Amino acid sequence: MPQRTVLVVLFDGVQSLDVTGPLEVFAGAERHTPGTYRIRTASLDGAPVRTSSGLTLVPDGPLAGARDPHTLLVPGGEGTRTSDPELTAWLRAHGPRARRLVSVCTGAILLAGAGLLDGRRVTTHWSYCAKLARDHPSVTVEPDPVYVRDGHVATSAGVTAGIDLALALVEEDLDRDAALTVARHLVVFLRRPGNQAQFSAQLAAQTARRDPLREVQRWITEHPADDLSVEALAARARLSPRHFARAFRDETGTTPGRYVDRVRLEHARRLLEDTADGVEEVSRASGYGTPEAMRRAFVKALGTPPAEYRRRFRPAH
User: Fold this and answer.
1) Contact 297, 265 (CB under 8 A)
2) Quick check: keyword Lipoprotein in the entry (predicted)?
3) Is 37 left (phi over 0), alpha (psi -120 to 50) or beta?
4) Domains in the chain, ordered, with CATH?
5) pLDDT digit string, tens, across residues 180-196
6) Which tens digits make up the pLDDT trace of 47-62?
7) Residue 44: which pLDDT band, with cuts at 50, 70 and 90?
8) Residue 129 bears catalytic tag
9) At 253, is the pLDDT very low, low, confident or very high (cuts 50, 70, 90)?
């Protein structure tokens, strides 16, 4: 198996976790299968850089002395807001030579500025998707996914999404066992699929202020197959249905029904991606009751029925 060089670009104002998260994944894969990866870091002049959190990172050397890598990884951070023309020029000249272009968070802004994302589907941190799309109309920005693969270009959302993407790349380069070993060592999920939304239901909605409503939110997440009608949830919160519905909407920013719908959809997606359970079993476990009810929910929210969703997004075993 050929050794793959992973070159990580460093610059002042870089987000430290955008660098160290993927690096820990590739380093773990190298420990699992020695000779797989050669990991290098480089800044423009080879000098140490100060991250957005104040941490100082010492690169292995200057970009000028770096050999063309298999994987060129560009992290994000505050330093991407004002691109260094010299760094942009280096990326424009050397990016096309890499076998695989990877960005984490707002690193996509640097790649786009160098013209390396033209005609590509990409993502970035949710708060910068609109800016990226506005500044680079030739780039198709998808604001929802954790990461997006388009040919040899792979872009991810913020911070921890870089770990998800790196694990997916390790699974592609080696195998699922290697990625699983690394994930266990880092105590993270093996694979948060790229199509998964940057926000889960719990993150997309606000956390309720009052304990009874927070308890209801937790209950919904842990018991998607239970009776989650407004009446049942109101009884759990010890409120009248009308008072409960109004308070839930006011404190979370969404209605109980929409919250339940999103939790059930996420639960069903995880089961389809990570288990071999049949569609009927998944529909019952996720609170849909029947495969037809789940099919309607998938088509409405995702534009694809459950069986097709599983075919597209469940990894090969």
Assistant:
1) yes
2) no
3) beta
4) 4-186 (3.40.50.880), 200-317 (1.10.10.60)
5) 889 888 877 555 554 55
6) 999 999 999 999 999 9
7) very high
8) no
9) confident
Secondary structure class of 8 (helix, strand, coil): strand
pLDDT of res. 92: 97
pLDDT-based confidence at residue 310 (cuts at 50, 70, 90): confident
Q: What residues contact 13, with CB distance under 8 A and at least 6 apart?
A: 50, 51, 52, 77, 78, 79, 80, 81
Residues 6+ apart with CB under 8 A from 123: 108, 129, 141, 142, 143, 144, 145, 146, 147, 148, 155, 156, 157
For 140, the 3-state DSSP assignment is strand
Please pick, among 98, 105, 165, 178, the residue that the annotation labels catalytic. 105
**How far apart are alpha carbons 53 and 199 in whole angstroms?**
24
In which element (H, E) is residue 9 found?
strand 4-9
The secondary structure of the chain in percent helix, strand, coil, rounded to multiples of 5, reads 50, 15, 35
- Residue-by-residue DSSP string for 51-114: -TTS-EE--SEEGGGPPPPSEEEE--BGGGSS--HHHHHHHHHHGGGSSEEEE-TTHHHHHHHT
Parallel/antiparallel/unpaired status of strands 147-150 and 153-156: antiparallel
